[in-house]
Amino acid sequence: MHPLISEGIQKNRAIAEQLVRYLYEHPEVSGKEILSSRAIVEALKPFGFAIEYPFMEKELGYGTAFRAVLKRGKGPRASLMVEYDALPGVGHGCGHNLHGPLSVLAGMVMSQLPREAFQGTLELIGTPAEEEDGAKLHFAPAGVFDGDDLAVMMHSTSGGISRTNTQATALRCYLIDFKGLTAHAAGDPWNGHNALTAARKFLDLLDARRDSFRPYTVVSAVILDGGRAPNIIPDFARVRLEFRYPVRRQLQRLDRMIRNCAKGAALTMDCDVSFTLGFPDFDDMVRVPALENRIKAIFSDYGEPVEGPLPPAGSTDAGNVSYRCPTLHAYISITDEPCPGHSPQLRDATLTPHAMDQMAKGAAVLCELLLAIYNEPDFREAVQKDFKEALMEKERD
User: Fold this and answer.
1) Domain limits at 314?
2) Are 137 and 94 in contact (CB under 8 A)?
3) Residue 397: predicted pLDDT
4) DSSP category for residue 90
5) pTM
6) Same domain, 41 and 135
7) Which residues, including other chains, have CB under 8 Å from residue 210's CB and lie 6 or more apart?
8) Which stretches of the chain score pLDDT less than 50?
9) At residue 40, what are phi and psi to the nearest 5 degrees?
10) How deeply is 78 buried, as exposed, middle or buried, from its count of CB atoms within 10 A (0-12, 13-18, 19+)?
11) Would you give the DSSP letter of residue 74?
């Protein structure tokens, strides 16, 4: 354990803890993180970063992303990803108010290490809207992380066990519109083509196909629009549907199945159907064994119980980053009590003294990993080798 890291954590953790509380008290949903992003940027200003804020406003359509760059001559480049959006109705039930500041604290500590501690470039990338149209979905294809030797973050979790990484699933979102013909529901229903019935039968057909889903397939949907009054045959219905699978290449098989179900339902009800992507696809995670092994060892050095990732479940836009450069999306347990994600329990756990201690520990672990990337050429080479092999394996899957 690097003594200057421990010293830097203690010196700056009060700033990070203040951010945790501020974000908790001012939860802002995806794309609306005006106060949240401003608070983080203001906290970073004294630490010598060159800050672009807003960052990629034109490309994203909102002004709550940022990039803070620390350059120390030639050398490797690494990025710390910072999340800070909240959930509608729940606030910070995913813990972004804690693990966003965790990345910020790691960046602050790295900026104060003496120049001989590492050479290269460190970037803090403020990535809003992870819960919806994730900024990383746009940053990754725009090349923001291209050439990085590492992109890393540490997400909040519970249960007393931290995790080396995630096995995030690939996700696609559609807005599916059914268009029919309106008519009076009592006077002349035979002249109508019921778009709501087409939408309901589409969902029934999807349920009928579940026995042919592969393991870890998840398909979820809600009806956003199904008419205005019960005495009028609805001529329009809209379904928002999301489907997930552990490997992005297999989404196309699900896509065909979903389209066939929708077309069949529309045909039966004499309706038309159209598909619009809700946002770019979330990719699954390209896992890099060398990174997972190293962070597991660092966690253990800090006395933190740690295991490998859980089976595939949710999705994260960090998966899109993982197809562009070696990426790690670790987890830090902030409460020994198991809490579901996106819950008031996890939200409130972020304010406990134990959670603050875990945030400080997690930031120290990230600093240790960053120093290994900057200072160990053999480790960087092993990371790149594992990354390229994992990427090839994904494409073959």
Assistant:
1) 3-168+282-396
2) no
3) 57
4) T
5) 0.92
6) yes
7) 219
8) none
9) -70, -45
10) buried
11) S
Amino acid at 167: Q
Copy the structure tokens of residue 17.
């803890």
Q: How far apart are CA 288 and CA 329, in angstroms?
A: 11
Residue 222 in tokens: 């809600």
Place of tokens 């529309």: 266
**Whether residue 215 sits in one domain with residue 197:** yes
Q: Around 90, how many Cα atoms within 13 Å sit in the side-chain half-sphere? A: 20
Q: Look up residue 146 and give its two tokens.
A: 């291209």
Q: Same domain, yes or no, for 335 and 374?
A: yes
Q: Which two tokens stand for residue 173?
A: 């979102």
Neighbouring residues of 260: CB distance < 8 A, sequence distance ≥ 6: none
Instruction: Please give the distance of CA 293 from its chain centroid, rounded to a whole number.
Output: 22
| 87 residue type, one letter | L
* Model pLDDT, residue 342: 92
Residues in Cβ contact with 315 at an 8 Å cutoff, skipping those fewer than 6 apart:
168, 169, 170, 171, 244, 282
CA distance 397 to 394: 5
Tell me, yes or no, whether 155 and 254 share the same domain: no
Termini Cα distance of the chain: 39
Whose tokens are 């106060």? That residue is: 35
Q: In angstroms, rounded to a whole number, what is the distance separating the alpha carbons of residues 112 and 129?
A: 29
Q: 276 — phi, psi (to 5°)?
A: -130, 130
Distances (CA, A) of 6 to 112, 119, 365: 12, 20, 10
